[in-house]
Amino acid sequence: xxxxxxxxxxxxxxxxxxxxxxxxxxxxxxxxxxxxxxxxxxxxxxxxxxxxxxxxxxxxxxxxxxxxxxxxxxxxxxxxxxxxxxxxxxxxxxxxxxxxxxxxxxxxxxxxxxxxxxxxxxxxxxxxxxxxxxxxxxxxxxxxxxxxxxxxxxxxxxxxxxxxxxxxxxxxxxxxxxxxxxxxxxxxxxxxxxxxxxxxxxxxxxxxxxxxxxxxxxxxxxxxxxxxxxxxxxxxxxxxxxxxxxxxxxxxxxxxxxxxxxxxxxxxxxxxxxxxxxxxxxxxxxxxxxxxxxxxxxxxxxxxxxxxxxxxxxxxxxxxxxxxxxxxxxxxxxxxxxxxxxxxxxxxxxxxxxxxxxxxxxxxxxxxxxxxxxxxxxxxxxxxxxxxxxxxxxxxxxxxxxxxxxxxxxxxxxxxxxxxxxxxxxxxxxxxxxxxxxxxxxxxxxxxxxxxxxxxxxxxxxxxxxxxxxxxxxxxxxxxxxxxxxxxxxxxxxxxxxxxxxxxxxxxxxxxxxxxxxxxxxxxxxxxxxxxxxxxxxxxxxxxxxxxxxxxxxxxxxxxxxxxxxxxxxxxxxxxxxxxxxxxxxxxxxxxxxxxxxxxxxxxxxxxxxxxxxxxxxxxxxxxxxxxxxxxxxxxxxxxxxxxxxxxxxxxxxxxxxxxxxxxxxxxxxxxxxxxxxxxxxxxxxxxxxxxxxxxxxxxxxxxxxxxxxxxxxxxxxxxxxxxxxxxxxxxxxxx
Length: 736
Ligand code: GTP
Ligand code: MG
Prior knowledge:
This protein is an alpha+beta fold. The chain is about 20% helix and about 25% strand.
């Protein structure tokens, strides 16, 4: 049974009652009332401009919706008082978001801080939320000065080649390259822990549960109070050996890549290619991929006979029935017992939410149940004939898109759930308020290219074929524009509530016009994703679980390589070496985990505070990059506000989230040829592609897309919406 880690703490304590009157139609931007600076200081809180929740002053992102606070106000410390046995006491909803978005210890130079204090555009007011700063034209000269300190003085923009077809291009054009791997399906973990955070082999967990809340503070200093950068240089290992001096394997033999999965983004970006060779290459000191020799145990043996793991994101507009569908599937497949189901039915009826009985299996927090809305990605498991499916039930509400991004990025495939009811499908397709389009674009940008469109609530439209056809035609056009191929999209009319077309063919005669596969059948028709078994270990940390005995487990999906009990791993960004004590996959202890597996890796020989969500486990000889100045190739999404130099954005990559500022717009790219059409444009507008440079508030673990797709995909948001998607093309300045 899926379970949201609850830690036995009442997360409703101190909860702002105002927020209880949740209104789907609530227009956040219009209703934001900014508290005065005086109020904020007096009350020790800051108000989220999206959900208006009053967060404690020590929080760097909103406890409810995960939106970042103003970059300047973090105190940069880990507040021990707010934790119980390392578990954050604040609301579980945001904890998860925070655990996913945990940031590194503050490491701004004094100069940078000074600059920020002087630069109103960057800081504005202490209590302003970061995204409120919007697309302001910043005083870049001021900002740039901050980076003119010795550590940032070597910023050097290298030219790119834009004329070489990428592996993704080859695939999109139907030309299969032997070197081509899958779309680098992203990551996310499903791990099973009990309420008291001890490893428990019987329950599921919410993708961003409270257990890692302590990490969510992000501002973790090591025991000596040193910053990360110090720590990196003075940890047990020599930093020079751990932090790559040379990203040789980024170069990938000089091949060029495009972003392969950005929805309609792809139609604009797929012809944009670029040389991955960085002008900033340093002396080769770290191991190159050529030197990496995988061992035999790292490859799966066919005889193992286990089901292939499939990470399946359930996405779609709010209230389309994602959780109900997931809960119903779990029940039909025996993952939820009859007894448990009775309990959900009884309890939901008592709360006047009888129609949410199945959704309660996934929406486990009091907040979610009260409001009847999913807030964080729930992770659970089911088995089909062919796959061991990791179900990632995402929130549909627009306020929780950040949680959807960080929780569902590991998806290999997706079910896009559509509410067929009259008016509801149309609401989901609304360009500004609907999430159907945004989720479809995001999913495509995660690298997912095969989806099922589950046209749900067909009972509400009398299983009308006309309604189904209309939805198929309108949404189909949009999905094509997102670069989903018709052959990779399966359309299924169904009803989760009436159990039609889920695990067997429909029994209702009103669906007799439908002759396609039922849902479970369609899931089995997904193509398995290829996995990078032969590359060095890379596992972005989605979540961190600490037991009361002081044990620490890093949870996530292995993007590359393999690991087994006794393996030594490098835990970034702290560059600590730890030993794998044990592994758990879907509640079962296992001895080996390989690329594609969602696992909890129990580590020993490491300070638990040095394992943080947003960090990465890697092979000790092949550390992931740790950087804050990045070059990206982006596509600005339809309807987004222009991006200017100095614009402040929320930056998302794998399970990391950070405040960012556009430091340079290098060039505009032709969407068809990928060639530079204009150098140094003043801004980029909707549907334009460009090469830009971003400077993050703090360094994060990141890789170039050419090296690891999962770690090189980025999403930029502001004012509560996704404005651009893209890929990391160069790490301009890496922390060494
Ligand atoms: P969020 O996670 O908040 O985005 O919502 P959701 O997509 O998970 O929707 P949820 O499962 O919470 O269901 C929302 C409402 O739709 C509930 O009242 C369900 O009973 C109802 N619902 C779900 N599936 C069906 C269906 O097949 N038919 C009908 N008539 N109602 C349904
Ligand atoms: Mg839901």
